Amino acid sequence: MAITLSGDQALPGPPLSSRLTPAQVWGIILLAPYLLVFLAFVVYPVCYGLWLARAPANYVALANDPIFARAAVNTLIFLVIGINIKMLIALFLSGFFAMQRTWIKWLSVIFILPWAVPSIPTILSVRFMLNPEWGVINHLIFSFTGDDGPNWLNDPTVALSMAIGVHIWKSLPFWTLILITGRLAISHDLFEAAEVDGASWWQKFRYITWPSMQTLYVTCTLLSMIWTLGDFNSVYLLTGGGPADLTHVLATLGIRYLRLDQLSLAMASIVCAMPFVLPLVYFMMKRLSR
Amino acid sequence: MKLPSLRDVATEARLLLIGIPVFLWTMIPIYHMFLFAISPKEDAFSGKLWPDHPTLHNFEIVFKQQHYFLRDFYVQFWNSTLIAAAVGVLTLFIATAAAFSISRLKVPGGRMVLNLALFTYFIPAAFLAVPMYRTMGNYGLLNNHWSLILAMVTIASPYAIWVLKQASDKLPVELDEAAVMDGATTLQIFRLVYLPLMMPSLVAIGTYAVLLAWNEYLYAFLLLSNDRQITLPVALGNFLAADDSPWELLMTTGFIYALPPAAVYYAFRRYMVGGLTAGAVKS
């Protein structure tokens, strides 16, 4: 019965080694590979990085770098505006894809593609579409209006919006999928009862769907925020941080400093994001490990 | 056949009004990539929606490596394959062992390891990349495939452990107890009872790790630099270094590169959707 013994209670008594059952010894052996990976590639790098970033001079340098301030603002715009737009669209589309139609089922199979295929060729494809001289978008604008279209990636505001668009394109399918799962978990009886009472589409959403999905929606939004902080590709592959380094986000800025051989600045810029990241992480861990 | 009522037609029309934009939004960047791949250079740059002379010539150039940027195409394709396979195998090994240990053997401190893994899962990937790059340098692994393999295993395992632990907890304890009664050792339980029952989750996790590694750009571009060491996405990124990048070849190579993950995803879709979304967010 050794296997059902819980090792979590700290029993007083003889030293640990003699209290371990064979199963627990195996447990420790099987856990060791992950612990080694964790120590070598998470703990050591993070501590070493923090040590490199420890000098206050780094933070003074960051505060004096206008690119850093701009990147911090861009990151906030990405998180607050980009994610909320994405999650609202995902919530809306989850309702659409939950409909029982053969053609919608087929569409959902195609809809997953942006998430399933790698970023680099698709984002570069978008980048070329937005090319002012050769891109298909400005070709179409020219053939319909006779005017030249805008230089999409040359204006920092437009370029950042395009990067947010690319991010939404890439990650919308995943979140829609999760929210569909949430929707399908709602008991069908509730909707049938509401239907009998003559509830409108909005009333059904307001009083049945939303209350059942609220927790899931909030969790997804927070998780999406954490992951978006780590989204390097959407910005780097579309704008490269340009024009004039005005579309950087913290994820690309850290790598930019790294490429300029300023590792302590790179780490310091990440440390500056920690006051945002750690509460999110703490909250997510509490939610998931309940 | 019953004729649809006017109301049904109106509902269907409204749904199409959502469905058509969704279809276009999803497909346009992918179609654009495909369009470039089958267009001769002149057509690609003319902004046409279908080339006047569709051709497979670009594929021929890629497969015969007839361009400066494509000299090492097969080597790079092989690097991507090898690294993705290694990440899949190693992640499966590490995560299955950890999940079995935490969930079935109730190892002391298992809960804490799970929380540590969860914490890693939440570190934004681009943030970890900065110290990881320097650490790989300290370990002397830069420009070595092992650096990318180990980095991707580090990123893939936390989620893998989390999903596998959730799935393990659902298996009844009685199975293990019965096996112990029959005199099975811990390793026999692992091999003969646990692994077969976990197969669907293992397929999902293996696929996830392979796709993650195959699609990775940032870590690959930081950790590998030699033309014969790099993976396909890094090679694609390097195309952009030239002033007059051969975009039609870039898109052709990109299209070839995107095919395997799409195929793998669709082959294992059943496992993926159930296995991965369940673990991603516990509601």
From TrEMBL, chain B:
Domain of life: Bacteria
SUPFAM superfamilies to which the protein is assigned, alphabetical: MetI-like
Subcellular location: Cell membrane
Topology term for the membrane: Multi-pass membrane protein
Transmembrane spans: 15-38, 77-100, 112-133, 145-164, 192-214, 249-268
Main location: membrane
One GO CC term, this protein: plasma membrane
InterPro entries, sorted: BP-dep_ABC_trans_perm, MetI-like, MetI-like_sf
Stretches assigned to the ABC transmembrane type-1 domain: 77-268
PROSITE patterns: ABC_TM1
One biological process term in Gene Ontology: transmembrane transport
Keywords, ordered alphabetically: Cell membrane, Membrane, Transmembrane, Transmembrane helix, Transport
Pfam families: BPD_transp_1 (PF00528)
Family (UniProt): Belongs to the binding-protein-dependent transport system permease family.
Designated name of the protein: Carbohydrate ABC transporter membrane protein 2 (CUT1 family)
Organism this protein belongs to: Bradyrhizobium sacchari
Lineage: Bacteria, Pseudomonadati, Pseudomonadota, Alphaproteobacteria, Hyphomicrobiales
